[in-house]
Design brief:
Blueprint lengths: L10 E4 L7 H4 L6 E6 L2 H5 L1 H10 L4 E5 L8 H14 L3 E6 L1 H13 L6 H5 L11 E5 L11 E6 L4 E6 L5 E6 L9 H20 L5 H19 L10 H18 L4 H13 L3 H16 L4 H10 L9 H18 L13 H12 L13 H11 L1
Parallel strand pairs: 1-8, 2-3, 2-4, 4-5, 5-8
Antiparallel strand pairs: 6-7
Helix pairs in contact: 4-5, 7-8, 7-9, 7-11, 8-9, 10-11, 10-14, 11-13, 11-15, 12-13, 14-15
Length: 382
């Protein structure tokens, strides 16, 4: 097991209507703010609710919402230019993973003089970042508690990893009410993706006792949200359970690492703009079956935690039940079950496996893997 190093950063606030106090929380970070916000929030009416908490407190800010479906380096460049021209003191990010990644890149590189692409090619930022306040509107984010940012390179349509300064994010506000605008299918696929994130952290070679504990609790909360509570004493609303589980899954992933499904879904999204949660959901049961060869005891434990099988089920049967549990939830939500259902060819997906093999994170998988191993998983899921 890897050495355990834990730093209390960033501050985390989780609860209903926490965004109504956003203006109160950010006062220590300056007097001029840039709010990078997912444009979908305007369409569903949540953007105004969030900015009103700043307006009511007479806080100086402006919003940036020119974030297309495939946010890439060009979007980061445009947002970075606006932030510098406005001489802002802090970045506020409100949205899903693509919005948070754009905001994190702007905060990390605000004081830098090198071009963005220099950092994508390996240069490390040397200046202090701007403070970043993150308000996720989905239940999970693989990198929110890490020093990594995933950015789609506009030159090549490949995902790149940008390494950032420590303590980039100062505050994360999880407000379960923000997830209420997701469709049932979106919620279902993100729930499966979150369970996958916890499972990958649990199986990873970098796992610690802390990440194990958090991953197990995340899986338990997800089972309550997805299948209902086993007892009448648990009355926590479903959206709160999802937010709690997502926060814990993200913490577990940061303490351990992501796995093959998450890495492949990032590469598929970068090239073909396919939802990460959909591709992850499809790959997840195949990841379970692959990991059964070397982590059956751990998978069996998770299977029992999510109540996919009785507590006294033998390990090999419990692992099979876990994979079937995921497939049943995919079918129940009427989600695509095979990668070919995403209207992408096996030849196109082979490029994604090659892309993943070039990313440093492939050295932090649940087992030693190459791009050929990743392509084998793709083939079984196709």
């Amino acid at each position: 097991m890897s050495d355990f190093i834990f730093k209390i950063q960033p501050n985390i606030v989780l609860g209903s209507y926490t965004t109504s106090r956003l203006g109160q929380y950010i006062r220590d970070y300056g007097s001029k703010f840039m709010v990078i916000i997912d444009p979908i929030l305007k369409q569903v009416g949540n953007a105004e609710k969030i900015t009103n908490t700043l307006t009511d407190r007479k806080i100086d800010f402006f919003t940036f919402d020119e974030i297309p479906e495939g946010a890439d380096t060009q979007v980061v460049t445009d947002a970075l230019r606006l932030a510098r021209e406005a001489h802002v003191h802090c970045i506020i990010a409100v949205g899903g993973a693509k919005t948070l990644n754009v905001a994190r890149a702007v905060a990390a590189l605000y004081h830098e003089t090198h071009e963005l692409y220099d950092f994508l090619d390996g240069t490390m930022p040397t200046t202090a970042p701007l403070p970043l306040v993150a308000v996720p509107t989905t239940m999970r984010d693989s990198f929110i508690f890490t020093n990594f940012i995933t950015i789609n390179d506009a030159r090549s349509s490949k995902v790149k990893i940008l390494k950032t300064q420590a303590n980039l994010c100062k505050l994360v506000l999880f407000d379960p009410n923000l997830t209420s605008t997701l469709t049932e299918n979106q919620t279902a696929s993100m729930a499966i993706e979150t369970l996958c994130l916890s499972t990958e952290a649990y199986l990873n070679q970098k796992a610690t006792f802390f990440s194990d504990m958090i991953a197990e609790k995340s899986a338990e909360l997800l089972s309550y949200a997805m299948d209902g509570s086993p007892t009448l004493t648990i009355t926590t609303p479903q959206e709160v359970l999802y937010s709690q589980a997502g926060c814990m899954a993200s913490l577990a992933s940061a303490s351990s690492s992501i796995g093959a499904s998450t890495l492949l879904s990032l590469c598929i999204n970068a090239r073909y703009k396919i939802s990460r949660s959909l591709s992850t959901s499809i790959l997840f049961p195949h990841i379970i079956e692959d990991a059964a060869k070397f982590r059956s005891d751990r998978l069996a434990k998770l299977s029992r935690i999510v109540r996919a099988c009785p507590q006294d089920t033998p390990d090999n049967e419990a692992v099979t039940a876990f994979a079937e549990y995921v497939r049943q939830h995919i079918a129940k939500a009427n989600l695509p079950a095979r990668l070919k259902d995403l209207n992408v060819s096996i030849e196109q997906l082979s490029l994604c496996a090659e892309d993943a093999g070039e990313i440093e994170l492939i050295n932090s998988m649940q087992r030693s893997m190459t791009s050929d191993d990743l392509f084998d998983i793709i083939k079984t899921a196709y």
